[in-house]
Amino acid sequence: MPIRSIRSLAYEDLTVGLSELVMKTVTDQDIVGFADISGDQNPIHLCDVYASKTRFGQRIAHGLYTASLISAVIGTRLPGPGAVYLSQTLNFRAPVKIGDVVRVHVEVAELMPERQRARLACECAADAAVVLEGEAWVRVPSRTELEAAA
Questions:
Q1: For the domain 11-149, what is the CATH superfamily, name and number?
Q2: 3-class DSSP state of 9
Q3: Which is it for the CA torsion 11, 12, 17, 18, positive or negative?
Q4: Which residues contact 35 (CB under 8 A, 6 or more apart)?
């Protein structure tokens, strides 16, 4: 997923409805790499013969690989560096296959100014079908905190 450039937004920069959209083509290398990093060597992800006998008929990406694309958006674009994950819900709707172009959309759904928290609506889609949806709560640093960290 070529992240355009890293963008760091302060809490004061956020508004309900602000969103970011990133697209990523899932490759065999992505799936093998995620299996190596996570230790999840389930053959549904790695073995064509095994996967061909499942209800999916072919290898699929790890669900948490797809979820990690949301993390990439949160950590690099909306809100970006300095944001701290507090929680994430994930509802898996459909499989992601090698070659799928995943559209990752993250949108500010709610702001809690007293605690510098943002609720983010998160959705991943492939071929116009939602494959994953959920929401994340993050703590977002203030402009003063970002400047002090720079």
A1: Hotdog Thioesterase (3.10.129.10)
A2: coil
A3: negative
A4: 41, 42, 45, 46, 62
pLDDT, tens digit (0-9, with 9 covering 90-100), for 9-37 = 999 999 999 999 999 999 999 999 999 99
The neighbour count for residue 16, using CB atoms within 10 Å, is 11
- CB atoms near residue 51 (< 10 Å): 18
Going by DSSP bridges, is the β-strand pair 19-25/101-112 parallel, antiparallel, or unpaired?
antiparallel
- The verdict on pTM exceeding 0.90 is yes
Dmax (CA) for the chain in angstroms is 55
108 and 15 in contact (C-beta within 8 Å)? Answer: yes
> Using an 8 Å Cβ cutoff, are 10 and 141 in contact?
yes
- Stated as kind and residue range, the H or E segment containing 140 is none
So what's the pLDDT on residue 112? 97
Which of 54-59's residues contact partners 24+ apart within 8 Å by CB, and which partners?
A: 56/95, 56/97, 58/97, 58/98, 59/31, 59/97, 59/98
Tokens at 56, concatenated: 């999916």
Nearest in space to 92 (alpha carbons), one of 72, 64, 69, 52: 64
